């Protein structure tokens, strides 16, 4: 487990609190790191990007206040952002996919930037790819590891026990030896079949994604992607691919799959499009398939899916846009390329699956 370098990261943020203060930060930092949950990661992303915290800041302030009663979020928002970013970075290093995903979704394809630790977005993207690759790297199964049980050891004792009428002892020894033999055989079989089961699960996921890509078929609208405007197809493809993923990490090739899926059969060069226009152009029957029960209260973290949630709750037109701006912290004119829309919708869906 890599340690967060307080001195370097504080200095990078233009802060120099001194060694005594840094020592006071270590214990609560480690405690918050060990207790990291998806919900906490969401709030840390808000602190890191300077967004309003939903549900208050007591949990964060009190953690650091245990060792330093003078710690204040109001007087030093920049330090709070450093600590929040550091905790997210630590969570990424600990292999928590939702820590990487929440950084990327809140960043919204680079439209929202933090004032400290600018390396975190790139770190999150690389970590997801590395984790997806490592998840499919496992030792090959070796059937030769399964061996027949060895010859029993109680045969020499059995006759004596029987002659002495010690039937209970005899049955007990036979039962214990049989149980031990079965347990050893079961452990050997599990060691061989476990990686095979993982390989089969990976293969099943890959085959389903391959047929989905070849078919070019929207599961939400039940029509070819080629019949839809590119930005609309991009959002629906991102959600489809997330639903086909068996984990919140997904395959390392997910961005490439999305790019090829939404681009196939099209000659027009992709251009950026406003989220508002994608929402207004989306067929009404797609909104139910886009809806996610884990989304409420997270539009600032998931700005693309949040736009559809606002429009679905209020109705198309101008009314939903003001609500969206307040909830997401973005103007509905927020523009992304079709590929960025697809990847954003995919990552937002993957993040929400962690709750």
Question: Could you give the topology of this structure?
Answer:
Blueprint: H1 6-12, H2 19-34, H3 38-49, H4 58-65, H5 77-93, H6 97-107, H7 120-135, H8 155-163, H9 167-215, E1 217-218, E2 223-224, H10 230-244, H11 254-263, E3 273-274, H12 275-281, H13 287-290, H14 303-314, H15 319-328, E4 335-336, H16 338-352
Antiparallel strand pairs: 1-2, 3-4
Helix pairs in contact: 3-5, 3-6, 5-6, 5-7, 6-7, 6-16, 10-11, 10-16, 11-16, 12-14, 14-15
Characterization of the model:
By secondary structure, the protein is mostly helical. Helices cover 61% and strands 2% of the residues. The protein has 16 helices and 4 strands. It has helices spanning 6-12, 19-34, 38-49, 58-65, 77-93, 97-107, 120-135, 155-163, 167-215, 230-244, 254-263, 275-281, 287-290, 303-314, 319-328, 338-352; strands at residues 217-218, 223-224, 273-274, 335-336. Helix 5 (77-93) packs across helix 6 (97-107), helix 6 packs across helix 7 and helix 10 runs parallel beside helix 16. The mean pLDDT is 90.
